[in-house]
Write a structure and sequence with these properties.
The chain is mostly helical. Helix 3 (60-90) crosses helix 5 (126-133), helix 6 runs antiparallel to helix 7 (154-179) and helix 7 packs parallel to helix 9. It has a single domain (16-262), classed as Ribonucleotide Reductase, subunit A, CATH 1.10.620.20. The protein is globular. The chain has 10 helices and no strands. The protein has helices at residues 21-27, 31-42, 60-90, 94-120, 126-133, 136-150, 154-179, 182-210, 214-241, 254-262.
Length: 267
């Protein structure tokens, strides 16, 4: 079970949305839990992967495709980094502030390891390359998320970040991991473990706040409907970058739909 100090998978057996409130507050929203969760896949991986891991041989086309794919990942992670830092101030309780502080550290680490991977692939001007290759859909999502934070909208920001963005990343990273070279796959493994923890926070926090509050639920349902087309375009753009034809796309957004349905925001 990733997230409790055990190692071996990337969170498939851990379903944080099933935790009751007391257990969630005691475990997930703590620095102790965070330290245990990251120890197994961070302490001995200075760049996000085992330094003894042998690089796969990539031809020019494979390398270029991988660079294009990876250029999107720091954009999503930077969006979460900036949003999480703002949400520390918006959080209503100390446990929520503490969790967001750990997420800031997680997201900063994700940005770092993806940028270092791009450097190791020969990208010299990182910022220019990322800006030129990132999907416009993802950049639009980033602007929307940060707008919620700037407006002080905790619920909307947590929904956009810890449910929508984290589900998208978890889904895409898991799929990419199955086709990636060994180094990239191991980097993704560690990042996926973090995404599950972040998603668990979002579902648990919003689930408790939505219970018995039809007005808040209606507001989030409206936002979900507005963001649905953008989420779908983000999925489609990423799968195209992975070299898939539309008829080869995995079931788009199944994890996303499961998450919003658990929150009662389906339909």
């Amino acid at each position: 079970m990733v997230g409790t100090g055990e190692t071996g998978d990337t969170g498939d057996a851990w379903e944080p949305h099933l935790l009751d409130e007391d257990e969630f507050l005691r475990e997930v929203q703590s620095f102790e839990f965070w330290f245990e969760a990251i120890e197994g896949y961070l302490g001995d991986r200075p760049n996000g992967y085992d330094p003894d891991l042998v690089e796969a041989e990539l031809d020019d086309a494979e390398r270029d495709q991988l660079v294009t794919i990876l250029c999107n990942y720091p954009v999503g992670e930077t969006a979460a980094l900036e949003a999480s830092s703002g949400l520390v101030r918006l959080a209503a309780t100390n446990p929520s502030q503490i969790f967001m502080a750990t997420q800031v550290a997680d997201e900063a680490r994700h940005v770092e390891v993806f940028r270092r991977r791009l450097e190791h692939l020969g990208v010299s001007d990182l910022d220019t390359t990322i800006a030129s290759r990132a999907n416009p859909e993802l950049l639009e999502f980033k602007r929307t998320l940060l707008g919620f934070v700037d407006d002080g909208q905790w619920d909307l920001a947590v929904f956009a970040q810890n449910v929508l963005l984290e589900t998208m990343e978890d889904t895409v990273f898991r799929f990419h991991q199955t086709t990636a070279d060994p180094v990239t796959a191991q980097i993704l493994e560690g990042v996926i473990a973090d995404e599950r923890r972040h998603l668990g926070f979002g579902e648990n926090d919003l689930g408790r706040r939505l219970a018995g509050d039809p007005q808040r639920r209606a507001q989030l349902t409206e936002v979900r409907a507005r963001l649905d087309p953008l989420v779908l375009r983000c999925f489609e753009a990423t799968y195209r970058d992975l070299g898939l034809r539309p008829d080869e796309f995995p079931e788009l957004g199944r994890s996303y739909l499961d998450a919003v349905e658990r929150l009662g925001l389906g339909g």
